[in-house]
C-alpha cells in the first residue's frame, strides 16, 4: 500500500517512482494520493487516516509506505491507527540498499545511512516505544532514552572510521591507476549504467531492470583500443536523496566523480519532463561533491525512441545537456562513436586567463567549457577547459592582446 502527499502539487512521476521502489521488496496493491498541507499528527489528514484504517483491516494489508518523510511521532501515530508497520520513502530506500549490499563496504555504508537517519529521531523513538509498543517500534522500549542516543552516536563514529580506511585504500588504489585515463559512470538509478559498462568493456556484470542493484564500484578497461581507459560504475542517484545518504556512499561516489571524464547516463525512453528532472538531480549531486570533470551526456536506450524524440530532447533540454550522444547499450548502437567521443574528450586541457577584454570573454563562453569565472576588481579570472591545441592557441592570443 502506498500513500503520497505533495504540497499543493499532484506529481505522477513521484508516485510511479515510489511504486517502482516498493516493487523491489513488496507487492503494492493500493495507491492513495492526498493533496494538502502536512498534518502534524499523522502527515495525512485524520479523516483519511480513519478511512484507510478500515481498508487496511479489510484487505489484509501488511505495510504502509508513505512518500513523504515521517517524524517518529507521525509514524507511531499511524502505526497505532493502522495496526501495521508504517515506513517512509527513506526507510524504503534503506531496505532496498540492504537487499543489494553484498560486500562488507556496502553493508557498512548502508548501516551508516540508517544510523544517520536514526540519530535525530533516536530519543523520540525510545520515548514513544515506552508509551506502548506499536508495529515498527519493537525493542526500543528496552533502552533508556539518552543511552540509546549515545549508542547510535558511538556506532556512527565507529563505522565512519572503518569507511575512512576504505576511502584511504581507494585513494591509494586510484594513485596506482593514475597513469591510465579514467571514466566515471554517473546516473539516475536504473538508467542503464551497468549495461553501458558491459558494452564498453566487454564484461558481463549482472544487469537487472531494478533500482539500486549496484551499490559498490566496478572498474574495467574499455575493450578494443590500444590506450588503456578505465571505466567505473557505481551507485545510482535518486531524487530527494538526503545529504546523509550522499555522505554514507561518498567513498563509492568519489570513485566515479574523481574520474578524468564523467558520463551522465540517461534513459532516453523517459518522457521529456522526466529526463529533465533526472538530469537536474545528476548535476545537483555532482555539484554537491564538487565534481569539475568534463562531462558527456549519454542518452541510453535510443532503440526505444524516434528521431523526432531525439530532436525534442536536444532542443527542449539544451541547458541541461553537455556534449550529448545517443546510444543503445543493449543493442550496441553507437558504442564505437561513444568510445571515439571519450578519447576525444580525454585530450582536453585546462587554461586560466586574467582579462577585461569583452570579446575574449564572450569567445571563451561560446567556445569553451567555463569551470570558474571570478571577478576581481575590473578583471575576470577565468578557468576554462578545451582541446589542448585550442587552450594553447587561446593562451597565446591572450598574451598578444593583453
TrEMBL record:
Which SUPFAM superfamilies does the record associate with it?
P-loop containing nucleoside triphosphate hydrolases (SSF52540)
**UniProt binding sites for GTP:** 187-194, 212-216, 233-236, 300-303, 328-330
The protein's UniProt keywords, in alphabetical order, are: Cytoplasm, GTP-binding, Magnesium, Metal-binding, Nucleotide-binding
Superkingdom of origin: Archaea
A molecular-function term among this protein's GO annotations: metal ion binding
Instruction: Spell out the InterPro entries in the cross-references.
Output: G_HFLX_dom (IPR030394), GTP-bd (IPR006073), GTP-bd_M (IPR032305), GTPase_HflX (IPR016496), GTPase_HflX_N (IPR025121), GTPase_HflX_N_sf (IPR042108), P-loop_NTPase (IPR027417), Small_GTP-bd (IPR005225)
Extract the PROSITE patterns matched here.
G_HFLX (PS51705)
GO (cellular component) term, any one:
cytoplasm
Q: What is its main location?
A: cytoplasm
Q: Does the keyword Transcription apply?
A: no
Compartments (UniProt record): Cytoplasm
Q: Which residues form the Hflx-type G domain?
A: 181-350
The UniProt record gives the binding positions of Mg(2+) as 194, 214
The protein's required cofactor(s) are namely:
Mg(2+)
- Cited HAMAP family: GTPase_HflX
Family stated for the protein in its record: Belongs to the TRAFAC class OBG-HflX-like GTPase superfamily. HflX GTPase family.
User: Which protein, by its recorded name, is this?
Assistant: GTPase HflX
Amino acid at each position: 500500500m502506498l500513500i503520497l502527499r505533495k504540497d499543493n502539487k499532484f506529481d505522477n512521476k513521484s508516485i510511479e517512482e515510489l511504486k517502482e521502489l516498493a516493487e523491489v521488496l513488496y507487492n503494492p496493491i493500493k495507491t492513495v494520493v492526498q493533496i494538502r498541507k502536512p498534518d502534524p499528527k499523522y502527515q495525512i489528514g485524520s479523516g483519511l487516516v480513519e478511512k484507510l484504517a478500515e481498508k487496511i483491516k479489510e484487505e489484509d494489508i501488511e505495510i504502509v509506505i508513505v512518500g513523504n518523510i515521517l517524524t517518529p511521532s507521525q509514524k507511531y501515530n499511524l502505526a497505532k491507527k493502522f495496526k501495521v508497520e508504517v515506513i517512509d520513502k527513506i526507510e524504503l530506500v534503506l531496505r532496498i540498499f540492504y537487499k543489494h549490499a553484498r560486500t562488507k563496504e556496502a553493508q557498512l555504508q548502508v548501516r551508516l545511512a540508517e544510523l544517520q537517519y536514526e540519530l535525530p529521531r533516536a530519543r523520540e523513538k525510545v520515548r514513544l516505544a515506552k508509551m506502548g509498543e506499536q508495529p515498527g517500534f519493537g525493542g526500543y522500549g528496552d533502552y533508556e532514552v539518552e543511552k540509546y542516543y549515545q549508542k547510535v552516536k558511538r556506532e556512527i563514529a565507529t563505522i565512519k572510521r572503518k569507511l575512512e580506511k576504505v576511502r584511504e585504500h581507494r585513494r591509494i588504489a586510484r594513485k596506482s591507476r593514475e597513469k591510465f585515463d579514467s571514466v566515471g559512470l554517473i546516473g539516475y538509478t536504473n538508467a542503464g549504467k551497468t549495461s553501458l559498462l558491459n558494452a564498453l568493456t566487454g564484461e558481463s556484470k549482472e544487469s537487472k531492470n531494478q533500482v539500486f542493484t549496484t551499490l559498490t564500484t566496478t572498474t574495467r578497461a574499455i575493450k578494443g583500443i590500444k590506450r588503456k581507459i578505465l571505466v567505473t560504475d557505481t551507485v545510482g542517484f535518486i531524487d530527494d536523496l538526503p545529504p546523509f545518504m550522499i555522505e554514507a556512499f561518498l567513498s563509492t561516489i568519489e570513485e566515479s566523480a574523481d574520474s578524468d571524464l564523467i558520463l551522465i547516463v540517461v534513459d532516453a525512453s523517459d518522457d521529456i519532463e522526466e529526463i529533465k528532472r533526472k538530469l537536474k538531480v545528476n548535476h545537483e549531486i555532482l555539484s554537491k561533491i564538487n565534481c569539475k570533470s568534463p562531462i558527456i551526456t549519454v542518452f541510453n536506450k535510443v532503440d526505444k525512441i524516434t528521431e523526432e524524440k531525439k530532436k525534442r530532447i536536444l532542443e527542449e533540454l539544451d541547458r541541461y545537456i553537455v556534449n550529448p550522444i545517443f546510444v543503445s547499450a543493449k543493442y550496441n548502437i553507437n558504442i564505437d562513436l561513444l568510445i571515439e567521443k571519450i578519447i576525444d574528450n580525454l585530450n582536453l586541457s585546462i587554461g586560466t586567463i586574467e582579462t577585461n577584454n569583452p570579446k575574449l570573454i564572450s569567445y571563451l563562453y561560446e567556445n569553451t567549457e567555463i569551470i570558474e569565472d571570478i571577478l576581481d576588481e575590473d578583471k575576470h579570472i577565468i578557468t576554462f577547459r578545451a582541446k589542448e591545441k585550442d587552450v594553447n592557441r587561446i593562451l597565446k592570443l591572450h598574451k598578444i592582446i593583453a
